[in-house]
UniProtKB/TrEMBL annotation:
Membrane topology: Multi-pass membrane protein
Positions of transmembrane segments: 28-52, 64-88, 108-129, 150-173, 197-222, 250-276
Protein name: Prostaglandin E2 receptor EP3 subtype
Domain called G-protein coupled receptors family 1 profile: residue spans: 41-324
Signal peptide range in chain numbering: none
Amino acid sequence: MTAKDTGCTNASIQVCENKTNAGGNVSVGFPISMMVTGVVGNSLALILVYISYRKKENRRKKSFLLFIGSLALTDLFGQLLTSPVVISVYLADLNWCAIDNTGKLCKYFGVCMTTFGLCSLFLASAMALERAMAITNPHWYSNHMKTSMTKLTLAAIWCLGFLFSLLPITGIGEYTNQWPGTWCFISTGKSEAPGNVFFAITFAVLGIFSLLVTLSCNVMTIRGLIIRCKTKTGASQSSKQWERLTTETVIQLLGIMCVLIICWSPLLLLLLRMIYSQVSSQECKSTNTTSTSVQSKASNLDCDFFLTAIRLASLNQILDPWVYLLLREILLRKFCIMANAVSNCSVEDRKESQTALDALNKQNQHGNNICKATSN
Protein backbone atom coordinates (compact mmCIF):
# COMPACT_ATOMS: atom_id res chain seq x y z
CA MET A 1 0.00 0.00 0.00
CA THR A 2 1.44 3.34 -1.06
CA ALA A 3 1.47 6.58 0.86
CA LYS A 4 -1.18 7.93 -1.46
CA ASP A 5 -3.46 4.97 -0.73
CA THR A 6 -3.26 5.57 2.99
CA GLY A 7 -4.04 9.26 2.67
CA CYS A 8 -0.54 10.40 3.70
CA THR A 9 0.74 12.38 0.76
CA ASN A 10 4.37 13.29 0.24
CA ALA A 11 3.71 16.72 1.69
CA SER A 12 2.07 15.16 4.71
CA ILE A 13 4.98 12.80 5.17
CA GLN A 14 7.38 15.73 5.00
CA VAL A 15 5.39 17.47 7.71
CA CYS A 16 5.50 14.32 9.82
CA GLU A 17 9.27 14.05 9.38
CA ASN A 18 9.77 17.64 10.55
CA LYS A 19 7.44 17.33 13.53
CA THR A 20 10.04 17.35 16.29
CA ASN A 21 11.75 20.59 15.36
CA ALA A 22 8.48 22.34 14.48
CA GLY A 23 6.60 21.76 17.67
CA GLY A 24 9.15 20.83 20.26
CA ASN A 25 8.65 24.05 22.18
CA VAL A 26 4.92 23.43 22.74
CA SER A 27 3.70 20.67 25.06
CA VAL A 28 0.36 18.89 25.09
CA GLY A 29 -0.65 21.11 27.99
CA PHE A 30 -1.14 24.02 25.57
CA PRO A 31 -4.07 22.54 23.58
CA ILE A 32 -5.52 21.00 26.75
CA SER A 33 -5.54 24.34 28.55
CA MET A 34 -7.12 26.04 25.53
CA MET A 35 -9.83 23.40 25.32
CA VAL A 36 -10.65 23.55 29.05
CA THR A 37 -10.74 27.35 29.04
CA GLY A 38 -12.96 27.43 25.97
CA VAL A 39 -15.37 24.78 27.23
CA VAL A 40 -15.71 26.39 30.67
CA GLY A 41 -16.16 29.90 29.28
CA ASN A 42 -18.71 28.95 26.64
CA SER A 43 -20.63 26.75 29.08
CA LEU A 44 -20.88 29.64 31.54
CA ALA A 45 -22.04 31.91 28.72
CA LEU A 46 -24.74 29.42 27.72
CA ILE A 47 -25.97 29.13 31.31
CA LEU A 48 -26.11 32.90 31.69
CA VAL A 49 -27.94 33.32 28.38
CA TYR A 50 -30.42 30.56 29.27
CA ILE A 51 -31.26 32.16 32.61
CA SER A 52 -31.64 35.59 31.04
CA TYR A 53 -33.72 34.24 28.15
CA ARG A 54 -36.27 32.68 30.49
CA LYS A 55 -36.67 35.97 32.37
CA LYS A 56 -37.02 38.24 29.34
CA GLU A 57 -40.42 38.91 27.80
CA ASN A 58 -39.31 41.55 25.31
CA ARG A 59 -38.86 40.18 21.78
CA ARG A 60 -35.97 42.54 21.14
CA LYS A 61 -33.99 41.22 24.10
CA LYS A 62 -34.82 37.60 23.29
CA SER A 63 -33.56 37.94 19.71
CA PHE A 64 -30.23 39.31 20.87
CA LEU A 65 -29.92 36.60 23.53
CA LEU A 66 -30.58 33.96 20.87
CA PHE A 67 -27.69 35.32 18.79
CA ILE A 68 -25.33 35.37 21.78
CA GLY A 69 -26.33 31.87 22.86
CA SER A 70 -25.90 30.55 19.32
CA LEU A 71 -22.41 32.04 19.07
CA ALA A 72 -21.46 30.51 22.43
CA LEU A 73 -22.87 27.15 21.29
CA THR A 74 -20.93 27.37 18.03
CA ASP A 75 -17.68 28.13 19.83
CA LEU A 76 -18.33 25.32 22.33
CA PHE A 77 -18.84 22.70 19.63
CA GLY A 78 -15.86 24.06 17.73
CA GLN A 79 -13.70 23.36 20.78
CA LEU A 80 -15.19 19.95 21.56
CA LEU A 81 -14.94 18.62 17.99
CA THR A 82 -11.41 19.79 17.13
CA SER A 83 -9.37 20.00 20.34
CA PRO A 84 -9.39 16.23 21.06
CA VAL A 85 -7.88 15.63 17.62
CA VAL A 86 -5.09 18.14 18.23
CA ILE A 87 -4.38 16.64 21.65
CA SER A 88 -4.19 13.17 20.10
CA VAL A 89 -1.64 14.40 17.55
CA TYR A 90 0.48 15.92 20.32
CA LEU A 91 0.34 12.64 22.24
CA ALA A 92 1.44 10.88 19.03
CA ASP A 93 4.60 13.00 18.97
CA LEU A 94 3.12 15.41 16.38
CA ASN A 95 2.73 12.60 13.85
CA TRP A 96 -0.63 13.10 12.12
CA CYS A 97 -0.18 9.96 10.01
CA ALA A 98 -0.02 7.89 13.19
CA ILE A 99 -3.68 8.64 13.99
CA ASP A 100 -4.98 9.20 10.45
CA ASN A 101 -3.68 6.83 7.82
CA THR A 102 -6.71 7.25 5.54
CA GLY A 103 -6.99 11.04 5.34
CA LYS A 104 -10.61 11.04 6.51
CA LEU A 105 -9.78 12.63 9.85
CA CYS A 106 -8.02 15.47 8.04
CA LYS A 107 -11.16 16.15 6.00
CA TYR A 108 -13.26 16.04 9.16
CA PHE A 109 -10.95 18.53 10.87
CA GLY A 110 -11.03 20.84 7.84
CA VAL A 111 -14.82 20.74 7.72
CA CYS A 112 -15.02 21.65 11.42
CA MET A 113 -12.52 24.50 11.10
CA THR A 114 -14.31 25.98 8.08
CA THR A 115 -17.84 25.52 9.45
CA PHE A 116 -17.31 26.93 12.91
CA GLY A 117 -15.02 29.66 11.64
CA LEU A 118 -17.52 30.99 9.11
CA CYS A 119 -20.48 30.56 11.47
CA SER A 120 -18.74 32.58 14.19
CA LEU A 121 -18.05 35.40 11.74
CA PHE A 122 -21.57 35.32 10.29
CA LEU A 123 -23.18 35.29 13.74
CA ALA A 124 -21.16 38.31 14.81
CA SER A 125 -22.30 40.13 11.67
CA ALA A 126 -25.92 39.12 12.26
CA MET A 127 -25.77 40.45 15.84
CA ALA A 128 -24.30 43.74 14.66
CA LEU A 129 -26.94 44.05 11.93
CA GLU A 130 -29.73 43.21 14.39
CA ARG A 131 -28.63 45.91 16.82
CA ALA A 132 -28.22 48.44 14.02
CA MET A 133 -31.80 47.85 12.85
CA ALA A 134 -33.14 47.98 16.41
CA ILE A 135 -31.58 51.38 17.09
CA THR A 136 -31.72 53.11 13.71
CA ASN A 137 -35.23 51.91 12.75
CA PRO A 138 -37.01 50.78 15.94
CA HIS A 139 -40.56 50.91 14.52
CA TRP A 140 -39.78 48.62 11.60
CA TYR A 141 -37.79 46.36 13.90
CA SER A 142 -40.65 46.02 16.39
CA ASN A 143 -43.16 45.16 13.67
CA HIS A 144 -41.09 42.76 11.56
CA MET A 145 -38.29 41.31 13.70
CA LYS A 146 -39.82 38.34 15.48
CA THR A 147 -38.18 35.54 17.43
CA SER A 148 -39.14 33.06 14.70
CA MET A 149 -37.22 35.13 12.13
CA THR A 150 -34.18 35.11 14.41
CA LYS A 151 -34.32 31.33 14.64
CA LEU A 152 -34.62 31.02 10.85
CA THR A 153 -31.61 33.32 10.44
CA LEU A 154 -29.57 31.18 12.82
CA ALA A 155 -30.55 27.99 11.00
CA ALA A 156 -29.63 29.55 7.65
CA ILE A 157 -26.20 30.64 8.94
CA TRP A 158 -25.40 27.17 10.27
CA CYS A 159 -26.62 25.45 7.10
CA LEU A 160 -24.71 27.75 4.75
CA GLY A 161 -21.51 27.41 6.77
CA PHE A 162 -21.78 23.62 6.86
CA LEU A 163 -22.70 23.24 3.18
CA PHE A 164 -19.81 25.48 2.13
CA SER A 165 -17.36 23.44 4.20
CA LEU A 166 -18.52 20.27 2.40
CA LEU A 167 -17.34 21.51 -1.01
CA PRO A 168 -13.93 19.77 -0.74
CA ILE A 169 -15.75 16.53 0.11
CA THR A 170 -17.60 16.85 -3.20
CA GLY A 171 -14.38 17.52 -5.09
CA ILE A 172 -14.26 21.34 -5.11
CA GLY A 173 -11.22 22.44 -3.13
CA GLU A 174 -9.02 20.45 -0.79
CA TYR A 175 -8.22 20.10 2.91
CA THR A 176 -4.58 19.27 3.65
CA ASN A 177 -2.46 18.69 6.70
CA GLN A 178 -0.81 21.93 7.77
CA TRP A 179 2.55 22.61 9.37
CA PRO A 180 3.67 21.52 11.96
CA GLY A 181 1.33 18.57 11.33
CA THR A 182 -1.18 19.13 14.14
CA TRP A 183 -4.14 20.42 12.13
CA CYS A 184 -5.80 20.45 8.72
CA PHE A 185 -7.19 23.37 6.78
CA ILE A 186 -7.81 24.74 3.29
CA SER A 187 -4.93 24.17 0.90
CA THR A 188 -3.32 27.39 -0.34
CA GLY A 189 -0.56 25.99 -2.55
CA LYS A 190 -0.56 24.22 -5.87
CA SER A 191 -3.19 21.49 -5.86
CA GLU A 192 -4.59 19.06 -8.38
CA ALA A 193 -8.05 19.39 -6.83
CA PRO A 194 -10.43 21.34 -9.10
CA GLY A 195 -11.64 24.66 -7.76
CA ASN A 196 -9.10 24.77 -4.95
CA VAL A 197 -8.16 28.41 -5.54
CA PHE A 198 -11.83 29.36 -5.84
CA PHE A 199 -12.68 27.62 -2.56
CA ALA A 200 -9.80 29.19 -0.64
CA ILE A 201 -10.43 32.70 -2.00
CA THR A 202 -14.16 32.42 -1.31
CA PHE A 203 -13.51 31.51 2.31
CA ALA A 204 -11.17 34.47 2.79
CA VAL A 205 -13.49 36.91 0.99
CA LEU A 206 -16.52 35.76 2.99
CA GLY A 207 -14.57 36.21 6.21
CA ILE A 208 -13.32 39.69 5.30
CA PHE A 209 -16.80 40.70 4.12
CA SER A 210 -18.24 39.54 7.44
CA LEU A 211 -15.71 41.63 9.36
CA LEU A 212 -16.56 44.70 7.27
CA VAL A 213 -20.29 44.20 7.84
CA THR A 214 -19.72 43.92 11.58
CA LEU A 215 -17.63 47.09 11.61
CA SER A 216 -20.11 49.06 9.47
CA CYS A 217 -23.14 48.00 11.48
CA ASN A 218 -21.49 48.94 14.76
CA VAL A 219 -20.63 52.37 13.38
CA MET A 220 -24.29 52.76 12.33
CA THR A 221 -25.40 51.69 15.80
CA ILE A 222 -23.18 54.24 17.53
CA ARG A 223 -24.33 56.98 15.15
CA GLY A 224 -27.98 56.09 15.68
CA LEU A 225 -27.51 55.99 19.44
CA ILE A 226 -25.89 59.42 19.51
CA ILE A 227 -28.64 60.93 17.34
CA ARG A 228 -31.39 59.43 19.46
CA CYS A 229 -29.74 60.54 22.68
CA LYS A 230 -29.64 64.11 21.36
CA THR A 231 -33.32 64.10 20.41
CA LYS A 232 -34.53 62.20 23.47
CA THR A 233 -33.45 64.14 26.54
CA GLY A 234 -36.18 63.13 28.94
CA ALA A 235 -35.54 62.34 32.58
CA SER A 236 -38.12 59.54 32.87
CA GLN A 237 -37.29 56.08 34.16
CA SER A 238 -37.97 54.46 30.77
CA SER A 239 -35.66 56.90 29.02
CA LYS A 240 -32.83 56.20 31.43
CA GLN A 241 -33.39 52.45 31.14
CA TRP A 242 -33.31 52.62 27.33
CA GLU A 243 -30.12 54.65 27.41
CA ARG A 244 -28.43 52.19 29.76
CA LEU A 245 -29.45 49.12 27.74
CA THR A 246 -28.41 50.56 24.40
CA THR A 247 -25.11 51.80 25.80
CA GLU A 248 -24.32 48.36 27.20
CA THR A 249 -25.28 46.72 23.92
CA VAL A 250 -23.08 49.01 21.83
CA ILE A 251 -20.07 48.55 24.09
CA GLN A 252 -20.56 44.80 24.06
CA LEU A 253 -20.71 44.70 20.26
CA LEU A 254 -17.61 46.87 20.04
CA GLY A 255 -15.80 44.39 22.27
CA ILE A 256 -16.88 41.51 20.07
CA MET A 257 -15.83 43.45 16.99
CA CYS A 258 -12.35 44.12 18.38
CA VAL A 259 -11.90 40.46 19.29
CA LEU A 260 -12.98 39.37 15.81
CA ILE A 261 -10.66 41.79 14.02
CA ILE A 262 -7.64 40.90 16.15
CA CYS A 263 -8.25 37.16 15.94
CA TRP A 264 -9.41 36.76 12.34
CA SER A 265 -7.91 39.49 10.16
CA PRO A 266 -4.31 38.08 10.28
CA LEU A 267 -5.48 34.65 9.08
CA LEU A 268 -7.80 35.95 6.35
CA LEU A 269 -5.30 38.45 4.94
CA LEU A 270 -2.41 36.00 5.08
CA LEU A 271 -4.60 33.37 3.43
CA LEU A 272 -5.12 35.67 0.44
CA ARG A 273 -1.39 36.43 0.30
CA MET A 274 -0.45 32.74 0.37
CA ILE A 275 -3.01 31.95 -2.33
CA TYR A 276 -1.64 34.73 -4.54
CA SER A 277 1.96 33.57 -4.11
CA GLN A 278 0.93 29.88 -4.20
CA VAL A 279 2.66 29.20 -0.90
CA SER A 280 1.47 26.38 1.33
CA SER A 281 2.46 25.46 4.86
CA GLN A 282 3.11 21.96 3.52
CA GLU A 283 6.28 23.35 1.97
CA CYS A 284 7.71 24.44 5.30
CA LYS A 285 11.15 23.13 6.16
CA SER A 286 12.52 22.27 9.54
CA THR A 287 14.90 24.66 11.23
CA ASN A 288 17.77 22.29 10.55
CA THR A 289 17.26 22.36 6.80
CA THR A 290 19.73 24.62 5.03
CA SER A 291 17.95 27.11 2.80
CA THR A 292 19.65 29.95 0.98
CA SER A 293 17.04 31.09 -1.51
CA VAL A 294 14.93 34.13 -0.76
CA GLN A 295 11.77 32.29 -1.80
CA SER A 296 12.36 29.52 0.77
CA LYS A 297 12.95 32.06 3.54
CA ALA A 298 9.75 33.88 2.63
CA SER A 299 7.93 30.56 2.60
CA ASN A 300 9.17 29.68 6.08
CA LEU A 301 8.21 33.14 7.34
CA ASP A 302 4.68 32.73 5.95
CA CYS A 303 4.37 29.32 7.57
CA ASP A 304 5.42 30.61 10.99
CA PHE A 305 3.01 33.52 10.78
CA PHE A 306 0.28 31.27 9.38
CA LEU A 307 0.56 29.02 12.43
CA THR A 308 0.28 32.06 14.72
CA ALA A 309 -2.69 33.34 12.73
CA ILE A 310 -4.61 30.08 13.04
CA ARG A 311 -3.92 30.01 16.78
CA LEU A 312 -5.35 33.54 17.03
CA ALA A 313 -8.46 32.39 15.17
CA SER A 314 -8.80 29.48 17.59
CA LEU A 315 -8.33 31.90 20.47
CA ASN A 316 -11.47 33.71 19.29
CA GLN A 317 -13.58 30.76 20.48
CA ILE A 318 -12.09 31.22 23.95
CA LEU A 319 -12.33 35.01 24.13
CA ASP A 320 -15.93 35.34 22.94
CA PRO A 321 -17.68 34.07 26.10
CA TRP A 322 -15.42 36.13 28.36
CA VAL A 323 -16.33 39.20 26.36
CA TYR A 324 -19.98 38.47 27.09
CA LEU A 325 -19.51 37.59 30.75
CA LEU A 326 -16.75 39.86 32.05
CA LEU A 327 -17.27 42.86 29.79
CA ARG A 328 -21.01 43.00 30.32
CA GLU A 329 -21.13 42.21 34.03
CA ILE A 330 -18.04 44.13 35.20
CA LEU A 331 -16.56 46.51 32.67
CA LEU A 332 -19.89 47.75 31.37
CA ARG A 333 -21.08 48.61 34.86
CA LYS A 334 -17.90 50.56 35.59
CA PHE A 335 -18.09 52.27 32.21
CA CYS A 336 -21.69 53.32 32.79
CA ILE A 337 -20.86 54.65 36.27
CA MET A 338 -17.93 56.60 34.85
CA ALA A 339 -20.00 57.87 31.92
CA ASN A 340 -22.79 58.98 34.26
CA ALA A 341 -20.27 60.75 36.47
CA VAL A 342 -18.78 62.56 33.48
CA SER A 343 -22.26 63.44 32.24
CA ASN A 344 -23.31 64.74 35.65
CA CYS A 345 -20.12 66.79 35.93
CA SER A 346 -20.76 68.28 32.51
CA VAL A 347 -24.32 69.15 33.47
CA GLU A 348 -23.17 70.72 36.73
CA ASP A 349 -20.46 72.68 34.90
CA ARG A 350 -23.02 73.99 32.45
CA LYS A 351 -25.35 74.93 35.30
CA GLU A 352 -22.55 76.73 37.16
CA SER A 353 -21.49 78.54 34.00
CA GLN A 354 -25.06 79.54 33.27
CA THR A 355 -25.56 80.74 36.87
CA ALA A 356 -22.38 82.82 36.74
CA LEU A 357 -23.43 84.26 33.39
CA ASP A 358 -26.89 85.14 34.69
CA ALA A 359 -25.37 86.83 37.75
CA LEU A 360 -23.01 88.81 35.54
CA ASN A 361 -25.88 89.89 33.31
CA LYS A 362 -27.93 90.95 36.31
CA GLN A 363 -24.98 92.90 37.64
CA ASN A 364 -24.49 94.67 34.32
CA GLN A 365 -28.19 95.41 34.09
CA HIS A 366 -28.18 96.79 37.63
CA GLY A 367 -25.19 99.03 36.77
CA ASN A 368 -26.95 100.30 33.68
CA ASN A 369 -30.02 101.13 35.71
CA ILE A 370 -27.88 103.10 38.22
CA CYS A 371 -26.23 105.01 35.42
CA LYS A 372 -29.61 105.89 33.92
CA ALA A 373 -30.91 107.01 37.31
CA THR A 374 -27.85 109.22 37.88
CA SER A 375 -28.13 110.86 34.51
CA ASN A 376 -31.78 111.60 35.14
